[in-house]
Amino acid sequence: MKNIQISPSILSADFSQLGIEIKRLEEGGADMVHVDVMDGHFVPNLTIGPPVIKSLRKHSSLKFDVHLMISPVDKYIEAYSDAGADIITIHPEATSNLSKSISKIKELKKKVGVSLNPETKTDIIKKNLKDIDLVLIMSVHPGFGGQEFMPEVLDKVRELKTVQKDQNLSFDIEIDGGINFENSKSAIEAGANILVSGTTIFKSNNGDIKKNIELLKSV
């Protein structure tokens, strides 16, 4: 099994001091920083744009794991790349040509992620898996933090893990949505090697980020 990595979602951080919050994540042992970008159109919420990411970039050497929940996504990819994203994750439903969007991210020398909503089947990305660095399985409906984990999506994690082994592929399997100390074990056992968590990391155990990250990794 790959080493389990934790990608804390700054959606649950204190937005009045994001630079400090990201420093806390780095000191607490986070492997990367998950940035949820929402446009109020593809999903029913608005979050942050490229200028904020650019300003945060100087506060951390951690990888920025940027999840674009925006449509149409293609015209924004370069802006988020320039702002400092290391991984750019898009949704198949947000582009008219997934293969072309994947190529665009690769041309910018960034890692490519593709996200599957709870109702989205894996079939939509199977022909692209050899070109994808990360598959993000949403275990809630995207748009808001604090939702309850949907255990049925673990079937998709297992399916992707099987495809990965059968085809000798090396993409990461990331899971995002309602991840806590109780369900992180089942997500890891199903085959996920990157856990995105916001509320649990920032709020549990009186905000002890280091302890919370260690607990999420333990199985």
Describe this structure in words.
There is one protein chain. This protein is of the alpha/beta class and 219 residues long. The protein has a single domain (5-217), classed as TIM Barrel. 33% of the residues lie in helices and 19% in strands. The chain has eight helices and eight strands. The protein has an eight-stranded parallel sheet with strand order 1-8-7-6-5-4-3-2. Helix 2 links the parallel strand 2 and strand 3 (63-69). The radius of gyration is 16 Å and the shape is globular. 42% of the residues are buried. The mean pLDDT is 95.
Helix-strand category: alpha/beta
Total of domains: 1
Walk across the major sheet and give the strand order. Answer: 1-8-7-6-5-4-3-2
Radius of gyration from CA coordinates: 16 Å
CATH topology: TIM Barrel
Silhouette: globular
- Measured as a percent range, the helix fraction is 25-40%
Task: Give the integer mean of the pLDDT values.
Answer: 95
Low-pLDDT segments: none
String of helices and strands: EHEHEHEHEEHEHEHH
Termini Cα gap:
12 Å
Q: What composes the largest sheet?
A: 8 strands, parallel
User: What percent strand?
Assistant: 15-25%
SS field, number of helical segments: 8
CATH class: Alpha Beta
Find the count of extended strands (DSSP E, 2+ residues): 8
In CATH terms, what is the architecture? Answer: Alpha-Beta Barrel
Classified in CATH, the superfamily is Aldolase class I
How would you summarize this macromolecular structure in one to three sentences?
The protein has 219 residues and is an alpha/beta fold. It has helices at residues 18-27, 50-57, 74-83, 98-107, 154-167, 184-190, 199-203, 209-217, and strands at residues 5-8, 32-38, 63-69, 87-90, 111-116, 134-138, 172-176, 194-197.
